[in-house]
Design brief:
This protein has 187 residues and is mostly helical. It is 81% helix and 0% strand. 20% of the residues are buried.
Length: 187
């Protein structure tokens, strides 16, 4: 009788241990999804601001139509993305298009002095800073989740429960060369 109780107690402890691992993985996955929801909030603000910025720039830079259309298409693609990975890719595309706009604006001194443009540029800069912060939080949550999925003993159960390593929010490969290059400073 006592051997049966000991075996039952060991099985109960093991079951509780597996449940604990499962619950920890669920919490970490939910934390990662919440972190991406914070990115979504900032992206929505960005998507709402971009048409205003584009409309302001259009008045000054009518011959930059191709660039403005690229931004509009990137914004639409970003808004229609559904999965986290699709949203990351679409956001990278929009970031690249907006970087092209910043370069283009340098050619229009009147535009840079326009109050509406300055206000929109300030808001866009604020949103970009907030996006950087929530992306860092997302990557931190993803790292914590990935660590939990890959370390022993959770790795023994993670795959069986449907948990797997998730991608970080990283710079698009086409932007990597630009980012890795030292900035050129001219006076």
């Amino acid at each position: 009788m006592s051997t049966g109780i000991i075996i039952l107690a060991v099985v109960a402890v093991l079951v509780l241990w597996v449940i604990s691992i499962y619950n920890s993985l669920v919490k970490l996955r939910n934390n990662r999804e919440n972190a991406f929801a914070n990115i979504d909030v900032q992206l929505k603000q960005r998507y709402d601001l971009v048409p205003q910025l584009v409309a302001t720039v259009k008045g000054y830079a009518s011959h930059e139509k191709e660039l403005l259309e690229k931004i509009t298409m990137a914004r639409s693609a970003a808004m229609s993305a559904t999965s986290i990975n699709d949203k990351i890719a679409a956001d990278n595309q929009l970031s690249s298009a907006l970087a092209g706009l910043k370069v283009s604006v340098e050619a229009y001194p009147d535009l840079k002095a326009n109050q509406n443009f300055l206000q929109l540029q300030g808001e866009l800069s604020d949103i970009e800073n907030k996006l950087a912060a929530v992306r860092r939080f997302f990557n931190s949550a993803t790292k914590e989740y990935n660590n939990a999925v890959q370390v022993f003993p959770a790795s023994l159960f993670a795959g069986a429960f449907g948990f797997h390593k998730e991608p970080m929010f990283e710079i698009a490969p086409e932007e990597r060369a630009i980012v890795d290059k030292a900035p050129e400073i001219k006076f």
